[in-house]
Structures are given as structure tokens and as C-alpha cells.
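Lab meeting minutes (informal)
Scribe: AK
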Amino acid sequence: MAYQHPEYLISATELSDQLDDPNLRIYDATVYLRPSEKGPYRAESGEQNFREGHVPGAMFLDLIEAASDTTTNLGFSLPKPAQLESLFRSLGVNDESQVVVYSTDNMMWATRAWWLLHYCGHPNVRVLNGGFDAWVANDLDTSDQATSYPIGSFAVNVDPDRFADKSTVLKAVSDQAVCTVNALAPAMHSGESPISYGRPGHIAGSINVFYDDLLLDGHFRRSEELVEVLSHKGLLQAAKVIAYCGGGIAATIDAFACLLVGQEQVAVYDGSMSEWVKDVSLPLEIGP
């Protein structure tokens, strides 16, 4: 069984064969999550490691600040379209560019970058399946040379349905037609983990599809495997899916997987648990 949207992914060998394409734009969006005393995690840029070795021709895409609204105190908040347009143009993106995004260590940073470009209406964005680890595993050349592209002319045309806000998620709590799905680990979903975002548990009525269950060795699972997992949890039958996590990053794995296999009505709750737990009036549940 083939993916409904195989064009959303690219393999390391496929990308290697296209490195001479003048329309190709490659971006490393790596972030590392480190333990923190002030919250569950501290975000650390992957730029230093990028400088030491990356896919030839790649530029670094800063998700922590450049691709975020840093005024919300939530982390990784969706910025205004004008900020994203300015960012992507500064990185050389044009409407006709063939864009590839990847990350090291965890696929979710690449899918977050992909989701932002998809939200902005770019017609040709692909995730490097398996990320930089797959590139290295295939014995492909790496580079420590800086790359720059000419300033781009990409015109952002956002699809607001690709993101959900707090009020939309609250309405979904009582709407049986909407499947709200938590991409975090089962112990965080149930509230049994010692790590939480301030209040343990999950958004009332939401189900759990751990993002890592949709991956195998850092690659997205085959179409039939994704369909089995997502259908079993009701995501593919739902009129709409809203994916969330801690801060709108891991949720993009679940959302991207839905799109891969043909569930088009899917959004990411950008604020996710980082925002939800701050309002004590919003319902949380404990347990599986």
C-alpha cells in the first residue's frame, strides 16, 4: 500500500541524486531538548552541530527564535505570516523551490518546519525520511561549508485550518466528530510521568497516539502500518483531527502521518499542553 502523499517524503539517496538542482533548497531544523529545572525541557539550538557537518548545500533553520513568536512565553509559538514570509525569503525560498527539511536526533523538528511551510502554502516541501542519521547511514558526503541562497520571493498564503487555538480545542472536547490526539508518551498522557507541563494528565476526551509509535528506526512507518495504528485509534474515521503535545512540535509527527495516508482534515494545536495547563478552568483528565 502506497502513501496517499508520497511527495511529502524524500529518501537520503533520492536527495543525494538531486543536489545539483538549482531550485533545491535544503534546511536543517534541528533542536535538542535538554532537562530543565524551570520546566520539562530546555530547547537548545542544533546550529553548532550543523556547522560541524550537514547535508551539502543545506542552511540552518532556527525554529527556536526565527520561526517562532518569542513574546508568548510558551516556546515555539506560531508567528504572524509576515514574519514567516520574511524568514523564508531570507533563506532563499521561492514559490518554485524544491524544499527539503531535515533534522538530527528526532524527526519532529523536521515535521514542524514542514508544517510551517505547508501552512504558508508552499507547494513543494519534503521531509528527509530518517533525517541526517539516514544521510550518514547511507555513507553520503557531508559538508562543514556555509551555504547561502539568493534572497527568495516566496509569497505566503496561509491555510488557517492547519493550526487550532485554545478555543477551538475547548469546543472539540464536547464534539464527538473531532478526534483530539495527544502525541506525548503514554506516561505523560496518563499523568503517571514525573515530568509534566505544570498539571499532569491530558486534555479531556483526547486519545493517545505516541509519536514514536509512528516511526521505525527514525523513518515513518510504511503506509499500511500507519493506517493500522491511526485507524485503530479512530483518527482516519474522524471528521477532523486536532493533534497536540507539549508545545506543538511532536504533534506534527501525528499530523504529518495523517496527511501521508490521506486524512486531510487535520490541525495542530500550537499552544498544546504548555498553554492549556496555565488556565486551571480548562479540563484535564488523569489515566489512559
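Next up, CB showed the second protein from the same session:
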Amino acid sequence: MKPLFVYSEAYRIGMAGLEKLHPFDINKYSSIHARLLSEGIILAEDVISPPPVTDEQLRLVHTQEFMAGLEDAKTVARFLEASWVAMFPMAVVESYVLKPLRYATGGTIVACRQAMQRKGLVINLGGGFHHAKPFQGEGFCVFADMPIAISVLRKEKLVKRVLVIDLDVHQGNGTALCCAKDDDTYTFSMHQEDLYPIPKEKSTLDVSLSVGTNDEEYLSLLEKHLPKLLDEARAELVIYQAGCDPIKGDPLANLAMSAKGIQSRDRYVIESCRERNIPVAMTLGGGYSKDAWLIQFQSIRELVTH
């Protein structure tokens, strides 16, 4: 079945241009969406616009302390590691920072729900906020979108067993912590060893990578571990965090993958799940090089057209 996409222009953060000071290119999502449309790879009807995550849904994972922190601009600034956010009134922070992140989190919920209903691949052109913890945000992440989506789908009785495959270069510490006591959720993270976050949380399976890991080394490790984990997890849904920051030259990491390597990685994950008839909800995660959006676009194009 043709992949479905989830995206909204409401994902875009705007803070009087100061958002450009942040290492993350918030235009990445919109650039990928625009290119997919302009090249005719997807049509407007292939894209679902999600509603924002609700406070009730947030409380399925996040604590009351966390929810109270969302009312304080300094706290939000700390979660995002963006001190300039604290300069703005809370009403502005809510409208131009938190609201977009609520929509992107809602996008992950919709992607997971649609993946289960369609029994195929659904791609959220955003999300993957894997550093957010029950009691705090960190590492540019505010809402724990993937654990929230799992909790929402469980409440809706759409899924029980879930596997989170996190191939962002940074360990998915927040996801691991959120799911640590959940026997029906497996968490798998392949990440650079000597890199934020330090110390790391414990995933169901962590695979540490050394500086300079290239395509061949990376894909060999993925092919070694992923099939066994897929069989062990017996997942009804895979959530794939497809961060592209393992790319060589990413300013916040030190691996050495190529754009072709990222394409091979993504294709291997999706095909491994398809072989087992496991639906996949894909989120885009990190990527901080100037052409991160293009690398992810090219990989998504390969998934859709081949």
C-alpha cells in the first residue's frame, strides 16, 4: 500500500527570527513536504493534517510537575536549550513554540493510529522527540511523542506490543526512561557512545557506535541486531525514529555515514518490518547539517518510489 504522510504547516516554530539561532533547522519538515509535493512524489490527498496533542493525552506519560512547567517560559527555554525563549511572554511561547510541538506530537499519534489501521507505512514529517522524559524536556525535546502515542493507542485498544527503533545518533534516553517499566514496549537504540546524553538510560537493547563509524560498519551492526529483536519483540507496531544525524559532517555528532548509507538504513528497517507484516510509523528525529532536510527527503523518496 502506498505510504501515507502526516504533516501540518502548524509544525513550524517562529520566534521573530530568533529560531534561526537554534542548531535545529525548524524548516526541515516544511522543506521535505514542499519538495515531495513539487516533484509529484505525493499528492495533497496523501497527507493528513493532525490535531494537536491534548493535555489529557500528555498526562498519560508526563507528570503534573512537567505540566506545570509548561506555564513558565524559563522552564520551556531550558527544555529546548534555547535561552532566548525565556525573553518572551508565556502567551507568545505557547503560540509560537509549544503549539507547533503539540501539533507535531499529535502527528506521531495520528501516524501510529493510521499505521495500525492501514497495516502499512505512515510517515510523520516531524516528531521523534526522544529526549523528553516524564518529568522534564531536554535536548531540544519537550513532549515524549512516541511514548505518548503508544499510551494513546493502548487506551484505544489498537495495539499492545510495540517496538521503538531509534537510529538517531543520540541515544533515545527519554523514550527508554518513559518505557522502562512497560513490558510490552521494546526500545532499541543505535547511537554514538561518547556523545550526549551522558549518562545514558537503559533501552531494551543499546548498540554503541564509535567515532567514525561508516556505512559498512553501521549497516553490518543493524543487520546483526534488528532481525533478532523484531522476532523477540513480536511487535504489532514499530515506531521508527529515523534521525539523519549519523551523517558525516553533522555538527553535533562524529559518525561517517553517507546519504546513500542513510537510504540503505531506512530501506532495511522498513523492508524488515514489511517481511514480518508489521505496520510502521516513521518520525524524522534529528539532523543538524545544512542539507539534513535534503538527505531525509532523498531517503523518503527512495522508500516511496522503489
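CB comment: The mean pLDDT is 95.
No objections, moving on.
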